Amino acid sequence: MGEKIDSLLEALRKVARDERTSRIVNFVLVPLLVLAALWLPPISIQERILERGYTAIGEGNWWVEDPDGTRLTIPPEGLAGPVKLKLTSVPRLDFLKGSAGEKLLKAAQAIPSHLEMKSPLYQIGLRGEMPTEAVLSVVIPNDAEPYCTLDLYTWTGEEWRWLPSHVVVEEDAIVSRLSFVPSSV
Question: What predicted TM-score, i.e. pTM, was given to this entire model?
Answer without folding.
Answer: 0.74
